[in-house]
Amino acid sequence: xxxDFCGEMALLHQAxxxxxxxxxxxxxxYELRRDDVIQAMDEYPAxxxxxxxxxxxxxxxxxx
Length: 64
What we know:
It holds the Pfam family cNMP_binding. Helices cover about 55% and strands about 0% of the residues. By secondary structure, it is mainly alpha-helical.
């Protein structure tokens, strides 16, 4: 849905990850390099918090 993202686990943990995603509507995609994400997380701690929460939530969902 609007605002969703994927790939946070690979960015946070420096581990290859494959995910399958499917857009419900036409969308634009943007690929971020890990260095850029790290810089953004350093400058804006709320980004780090959001990505870490998303990674935790996805990990829990995988277990269930």
